[in-house]
Amino acid sequence: MPKQSIPRVAVVTGASSGIGKAAAKQLVTQGWHVIGQGRNPERSAAAAAEIHAIAGNGKFNMVQGDLSLLSDTARMANEISALTDKIHLLLNNAGGVRAEMIITSEGNEATFAGNHLGHFLLTQHLLPLLQSASKTSAKHEVRVVNVTSDGHKGCPGIDWDDLQLTKEWNTGKSYCLAKLANILFTRELAQRVQGDGIIVHAFHPGTVDSNFINHAEARMRAYIETLQFRSPADAAADLLWVAMAPENGEFTAQYFESRVAMDPAPAALDRQAATRLWQESEKLIANFI
C-alpha cells in the first residue's frame, strides 16, 4: 500500500460563520485537518455539520468557547493540543464589536479581550506546535495570520494609563484600538519567531457580508451599511492567499489589504508600542498560561 501522507493542520478562530467558516471549508476540501473555534454553541454545531459534509479527504474538529474569556481560551488551547502535535497555519480570525461596554468576569473589557487578548493567549499556548511543524516543513510554510481591519487607522495610539479604554468607552474607539493591537501583536510576534522560520502577517479583508454588523451599535451599523460588501468566500480566498502563497513567505510582519501589502497607519509601525503591548498583554494573561 502507498504511504499515506500526513495532512497539514490549520487552526481557524471564528470558524462558525463568515470568513472563518468559508476559510475552513476551502482548507478542508483541499485535504487539510482543520480545527475550528466558535463562540456560539448552536452556530458552532451547525457549522461543524456543514463542514463535515464536504470534508472529503480532509478532517474537521470544532472547539467551542469564548475568546474574550481567558480561562475559556486556555481550555480551548488544551483541547486543540490534544487533537494534534503540529500546527502549520494559525488564522486568528475571530473578532467583533460590542454595542455597549462589557467587563468580563475576569475583569477585561470584552472587545479588547475578544479581539486581542484571547488571540494573544491562544498563540502563546499553540506556539510550540507551530515550532514543531516548522522543523519538518518547507521553508516559511508555517504561518500565523492575524485578521485586523483598516479601522486601526482610527486609533492614534495606545493610552497606557487606560489600556482597555474603560474610562471613556466608545464602541468605535474600542474596536479601532483592538484592531491596532492586532497589527502591533503581528509585528512583535514576527520578530520573536523569525528564528523559528515562522511567518506572521496581518490581513484586512474589507467589509464582509457576515453577522459582524449585527453586534454594532446603531450609528456604526448605519455607516457599515453604506459600504460595499464582499462575500465571505471571496474574503477567505484572499486570507488563504496571504497564508499560503509562496511569495508571501519571503518576508514577514506585513499588513495586507486584500492581496496588497501596504504600510499600516503610523501608530501600527511604532516598535516601542509593539514591545510594550506584548509586555502588558503578558501581565494580563499571566494566570492563564
Brief write-up:
The chain has 289 residues and is of the alpha/beta class. It has eight helices and eight strands. It is 42% helix and 13% strand.
List the SSEs and their pairings.
Elements: E1 9-13, H1 18-28, E2 33-38, H2 41-52, E3 59-64, H3 70-83, E4 89-92, H4 110-135, E5 143-147, H5 171-193, E6 199-204, H6 218-224, H7 232-244, E7 254-257, E8 260-262, H8 271-285
Parallel strand pairs: 1-2, 1-4, 2-3, 4-5, 5-6, 6-7
Antiparallel strand pairs: 7-8
Helix pairs in contact: 1-7, 3-4, 4-5, 5-8
Q: Which stretches are low in confidence, meaning pLDDT under 50 for 5 or more residues running?
A: none
> Might you state the CATH topology name?
Rossmann fold
Strand elements, count: 8
Q: What is the number of independent domains?
A: 1
Largest sheet: 8 strands, mixed
| CATH hierarchy class name | Alpha Beta
Q: What is the topology, as strand order, of the major beta sheet?
A: 3-2-1-4-5-6-7-8
CATH H-tier superfamily:
NAD(P)-binding Rossmann-like Domain
Query: Radius of gyration from the CA trace?
Result: 18 Å
Secondary-structure-derived class: alpha/beta
N-to-C SSE series? EHEHEHEHEHEHHEEH
Distance between the termini: 43 Å
- Provide a count of the helices: 8
How much β-strand is present in the residues? 5-15%
Q: What is the mean pLDDT?
A: 92
What oligomerization state is this entry in? single chain
Helical residue percent band: 40-55%
What is the general shape? globular
CATH architecture field: 3-Layer(aba) Sandwich
